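Ticket #4471: structure export looks truncated?
Reporter: QA, pipeline team
Priority: medium

Steps to reproduce: submit the single chain below to the structure queue and open the exported record.
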Amino acid sequence: MNLILIAVISLGIIAFVAAGILYAASKKFAVYEDPRIAQVAEVLPQANCGGCGYPGCSGLAGAIVKAGSLEGKFCPVGGQPVMEKVAAVMGLTAEQTEPMVAVVRCNGTCANRPRLTEYDGVRTCAIAAATYGGETGCSYGCLGCGDCTKVCKFDAIHMNPETGLPEVDDEKCTGCGACTKACPKGVIELRYKGKNNRRVYVRCINKDKGPVAKKACSVACIACGKCEKTCPFGAITVENNVAYIDFMKCKSCRKCVEVCPQHSIIDLNFPPLKKKETPAVEAPKTEAPKAEAPKAAALAQPVQGGAMPSAAAIEALLPQANCGGCGFDDCPAFAAAVVADGGVGEKFCSVGGEEVMAKIAALLASASSAPAAEAAPAPEAAPAPVKEETPAAPAKEEPKTPEDLWREKMGYTAKAIGLVPIPQSRWCNGIFKPLPPVTGLEKAAPKTAEAPKAEAPKAEAPKSAFDAYTPKGIGLITILQSRWSNGIFKPEAPKTQIEKAEALNAALLKEAAGK
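Actual output as written to the record:
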């Protein structure tokens, strides 16, 4: 009994002394922690995804409290509402930050990018990327093993078995960036979510040259540069044989989508583009003088009834970019649609942004509250003066020359050059005088069929130097050859030409005999 009592008392004394030592040590080596860290950590969603760049939500809370500002710090999971709560705890003001979303920049589906080999190893993108380029001819595209789906904590990305590519659920994606870090090919990228969840981006990262990239994938970017030249905002650059759209500069005008020959640029969640029809060219019409157009000061006045401002007043507030990013052909079409629908509705100007839309909303509000104004009758246009047409005096016929009479008889006209009989060649070449040669007329005019006459064989005339003129030399010889080319006249030449040719021929024969 005494032994048990002694053991209990000794253990109690030891515990009391140890507790005192621990209490003194805790006071001596105490570490002060700002209570706001716990308050900020309590506001955060505790997803511990690392999308903010810190190790968990407690790491982000400690960094915010230590820095004393929210600059460069953002929780992608909680978004702007959570950051406003954090700012309230810290006594700061939360900056407006555009939400981000993951985008798959590869369109190499099974139909667009045929498979050449089959991977039979461990189904992970990290190992497949380390061993070889992939199952297709594109070594830059998605490998299709699904590492991105395994690291997503929000179930926002899944593999499509038909296309073999990952698909992102915009509603669930928080923009934490875990999938971008897990992709060894860099196919997934974080971009602005955009107004009404609309985005324009190049869905290709192939850096091979155009023919090689097109052979591997039918929708690959070939770096033609058309999109870069078309973009009015300088948001597109072509480097390393592939185009890239800077989402911070892009205004979603979609002009690049229209000119891309490979359809590599994707416009997501946009209405279909309207095809612009070229208007038919009409004959000019004489119109009556129109009344003078209203000045700019009168554009802001509401239309009759005060319910809606004019389309010109709304158009004056637009940036006049005529880019089509709003889904309409141009700014006048957008303004006309606002007037026709009686309000803005879902319409949005991607170039002007919220500032322009706020001005339009203010104009609509002021027009609805304004009293109805009586519309002044438009001035009637004065009728155009009618000109009396005086009958033209009959043209006097000039007397016809013998040459004209001969042309009419034979059917030779200036319009028929090239289609008339062979004697016309004497008219069109401008060498001979327009006198009807008897021999040519007899050969060119149609004749009645006659019985063939037996002719005695004629002795072949000796060849002379004049035979040197052959049809092969037409256009390169003297004017005399034209008498040979038409086939009408006999090969009669001036004596001077024959004498010169015969003298040359005799000299050549004499020289040959001397050798």
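Status: closed, not a bug. The export was complete when the record was re-opened. Leaving a note from the reviewer for reference: The domain at 100-268 is CATH 3.30.70.20 (Alpha-Beta Plaits).
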